[in-house]
């Protein structure tokens, strides 16, 4: 078979391995997120790039030392900082490249959307599993508690400051399948970009810890209610009537904890450990029995496992592209692009060229300017600035 050469975009930090760009992912207001593959161990990682004021440390780094090592939160693999300066030498901002573990099951929001499309109910065992693991996570963040240890009598943190996540929603709750035979995925809380470390004397800040627990309650109601299709349509989607729509197939204990966690004043992290966790573990043990007897029982929960690309993001050449090409979102990254030649089969080559050529032509018709991937010396190490063409300059 004929082999062709394409170009992959490479991230090479000041230290550590190089990574090939695989896929662009959704990012927040402060960061650009993408899926990358290490050129050393060939494993997938998540790369988050963000900027801060000079000498500032991202929350993702500053809170790590305050989270117990056993707490199931996204793990920061490495962090790299560089600084941009004005022509007069004064610093403009610091740029951070953060690398995290990749979790292969998507996130909770993706799971809910998939099951909604298929009109499949959430298995009750997964809901209890979610509650048990989130209880362990929030107790680790707020109390420094580790599963298998007793809470102190005064139920205060010992030698640790409480951590408030501040952005606890389904998109930041990740699923990870440790093996093909696993019956349930691991639950991992990620994206600590809005997290803060609080003082035990900060009454206002400690109140934010309650908001994290309320957010868990909100996710719980989504799990039991939003995808109860028939009842939801009958009630026109009024969220205040979830109690009436509560599926009869779920247990009374689950209804009780839905009420408690969605109340104006939800239980504290210590109460979740002492009251909720034993109940959740008991139901998990009971409900896992049919899962073990039916290997396909967990198939609906695996629907968000992404099919990982066979190749990095590949470009047919390093000459020209347009603002609307597959490279367009990368302009937000504000850094140099390094390239590496990769040999690919003929079908991959033609597919890549066809997609890029089509987007290139469509972009020009829409009035977007061609941009160069090479500087004046011909070294394709960065992308020059580009702009939207005025209406009168549109090309046919």
Describe the structure.
The protein has 9 helices and 14 strands. The chain has 396 residues and is α+β, with helices and mostly antiparallel strands. It is globular.
Main attributes?
Transferase(Phosphotransferase), domain 1; alpha+beta; 14 strands; 8-stranded antiparallel sheet; 2 domains; Phosphorylase Kinase, domain 1; 396 residues
CATH architecture of the largest domain: Orthogonal Bundle
The shape, in one word, is globular
**Helical fraction:** 25-40%
Structure classification: alpha+beta
Q: How many angstroms does the end-to-end distance come to?
A: 38 Å
Major sheet: size, sense and barrel closure? Answer: 8 strands, antiparallel
Number of helices: 9
The arrangement of helices and strands along the chain is: EEEEHEEHHEEEEHHHHHEEEHE
What is the top-level CATH class of the largest domain? Mainly Alpha
Give a count of the beta strands, DSSP E runs of length 2 or more: 14
Beta-strand level of the residues, as a percent range? 15-25%
CATH fold-type name of the largest domain: Transferase(Phosphotransferase), domain 1
Number of domains: 2
In the predicted model, the low-confidence regions spanning at least 5 consecutive residues are 374-396
From the alpha-carbon coordinates, what is the Rg to the nearest angstrom? 24 Å
Overall pLDDT metric:
78
Could you name the CATH homologous superfamily of the largest domain?
A: Transferase(Phosphotransferase) domain 1
């Amino acid at each position: 078979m004929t082999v062709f050469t394409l170009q992959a975009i490479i991230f090479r930090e000041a230290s550590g391995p190089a990574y090939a760009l695989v896929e662009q992912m959704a990012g927040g207001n402060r960061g650009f997120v993408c899926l990358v593959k290490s050129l050393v161990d060939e494993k997938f990682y998540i790369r988050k790039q963000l900027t801060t004021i000079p000498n500032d440390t991202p929350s993702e780094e500053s809170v790590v030392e305050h989270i117990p090592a056993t707490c199931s939160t996204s793990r920061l693999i490495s962090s790299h900082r560089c600084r941009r300066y004005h022509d007069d030498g004064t610093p403009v901002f610091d740029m951070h490249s953060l690398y995290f573990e990749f979790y292969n099951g998507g996130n909770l929001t993706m799971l809910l959307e998939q099951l909604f499309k298929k009109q499949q109910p959430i298995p009750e065992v997964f809901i209890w599993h979610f509650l048990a693991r989130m209880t362990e996570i929030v107790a680790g963040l707020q109390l420094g508690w580790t599963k298998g240890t007793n809470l102190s009598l005064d139920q205060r943190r010992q030698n640790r400051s409480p951590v408030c996540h501040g952005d606890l929603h389904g998109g930041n709750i990740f699923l990870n399948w440790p093996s093909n035979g696993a019956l349930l995925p691991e639950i991992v809380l990620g994206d600590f970009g809005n997290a803060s470390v609080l003082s035990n004397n900060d009454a206002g800040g400690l109140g934010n810890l309650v908001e994290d627990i309320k957010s868990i309650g909100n996710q719980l109601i989504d799990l039991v209610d939003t995808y109860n299709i028939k009842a939801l349509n009958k009630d026109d989607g009024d969220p205040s009537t979830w109690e009436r729509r509560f599926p009869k197939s779920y247990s009374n204990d689950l209804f009780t904890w839905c009420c408690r966690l969605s109340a104006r004043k939800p239980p504290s992290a210590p109460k979740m450990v002492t009251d909720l966790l034993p109940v959740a573990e008991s139901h998990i043990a009971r409900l896992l029995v049919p899962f073990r007897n039916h290997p396909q029982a967990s198939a609906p929960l695996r629907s968000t496992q992404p099919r990982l690309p066979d190749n990095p993001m590949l470009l047919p050449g390093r000459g020209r592209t347009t603002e609307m090409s597959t490279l367009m979102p990368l302009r937000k990254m504000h850094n140099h692009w390094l390239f590496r030649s990769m040999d690919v089969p003929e079908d991959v080559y033609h597919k890549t060229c066809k997609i890029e050529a089509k987007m290139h032509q469509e972009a020009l018709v829409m009035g977007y300017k061609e941009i160069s991937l090479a500087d004046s010396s011909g070294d394709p190490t960065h992308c020059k600035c580009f702009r939207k063409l005025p209406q009168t300059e549109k090309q046919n």
